[in-house]
């Protein structure tokens, strides 16, 4: 199945460069481009892409607010944030708004394509060590802890809570299964239940939730 991508950036060279790189991949098709967040929201509704490559700092409507609107529309599009710096405080805000992960603008063609594939497949945490560092650093900016998050945690079983903590630490399903000495299929079931109970879209949102509920404490 071909992955449909919308590229959102106010710089034409960035849009054209990413478009050329992604269209060269046999399983990826760039279906459109947008120059700001407002146009991005409109084109997501029109084109129904699988993945949106979203710049953060744009005129008219920034990438954070655009991401929030796209996620709220619940059309199934996954947002992959583009940033120049891996410790950009706005990236954390975008993750809270519903983005599925982030990618540096200087990523190679292979990293760009792999990032799109990973997000499209629902495996939201990109480069776990980098994403974990970003979440850890900027979760310090959020309310500590969120009362609503604490209430929702009470709905999880002990094992589900344990799995959530390991997700927040950047572990894959296979690594969690090895750590808990259970089958990977069992972990997939636990992850799905955690997402449903907490009303979350993916693993990145689960990681952010775990930090905000203070199940994991920033170091």
From TrEMBL:
SUPFAM superfamilies: C-terminal effector domain of the bipartite response regulators (SSF46894), CheY-like (SSF52172). It holds the Pfam family GerE. InterPro entries: CheY-like_superfamily (IPR011006), NreC/VraR/RcsB-like_REC (IPR058245), Sig_transdc_resp-reg_C-effctor (IPR016032), Sig_transdc_resp-reg_receiver (IPR001789), Tscrpt_reg_LuxR_C (IPR000792), WalR-like (IPR039420). The modification 4-aspartylphosphate is found at residue 55. Residues 4-120 form the Response regulatory domain. Residues 149-214 form the HTH luxR-type domain. Keywords: DNA-binding, Phosphoprotein, Transcription, Transcription regulation. One of its GO terms (biological process) is regulation of DNA-templated transcription. One of its GO terms (molecular function) is DNA binding. This is Two-component system regulator.
